[in-house]
Each structure stands twice: as structure tokens, then as C-alpha cells.
Amino acid sequence: MPQDLKTDPVLLAALQRALALPQNPADIDQQRLSFVMGSLKSTNGITRAKVQEILSKQEGRKVA
User: Fold this and answer.
1) Which tens digits make up the pLDDT trace of 11-63?
2) HEC sequence for the chain
3) Four-point Cα dihedral 33, 36, 54, 48, nearest 10
4) What is the pLDDT of residue 61?
5) Nearest to 25, CA basis, from 1, 64, 49, 61
6) In angstroms, rounded to a whole number, what is the distance separating the alpha carbons of residues 33 and 14?
7) Of 39, 43, 41, the residue nearest 55 (C-alpha)
8) Which of left, alpha, beta for 60 (phi over 0: left; psi -120 to 50: alpha)?
9) Angle at Cα 42 formed by Cα 37 and Cα 48, nearest 5°?
């Protein structure tokens, strides 16, 4: 049964403005890290630093 969903026009306007904002590589990296961390189970024991290291290696960047 489909429902008529209504989205707040203020929210839609804010999303449209956000689309126009440029994202720099650091923003994208932070977003990727946040996504991965949010996808992991809290019991896995992997640290944020380790995930960052793995992502950096996948991107071909030097890991400190």
C-alpha cells in the first residue's frame, strides 16, 4: 500500500543548497570513514585509526 509521503519544503531547500556546495578530498575521506565506522559492529574491536589506515592504503596514499 503506497502512502503519500510529504517532505518538509525547508528540508528539501536545504538539501538543494547542499548539492551546490563543493566537497574537497578531506570532506569525502571523512564521509567515507564515517560510513565505514557506522557499518561496523561495535563488538568488532577495529579502531577508527585502523580503518583510516586501510582506506588510505586502498587509495594508494602513504600511511604515516
Assistant:
1) 999 999 999 999 998 999 999 999 999 999 989 999 999 999 999 999 888 77
2) CCCCCCCCHHHHHHHHHHHHCCCCHHHHHHHHHHHHHHHCCCCCCCCHHHHHHHHHHHCCCCCC
3) 60
4) 81
5) 61
6) 24
7) 39
8) left
9) 40
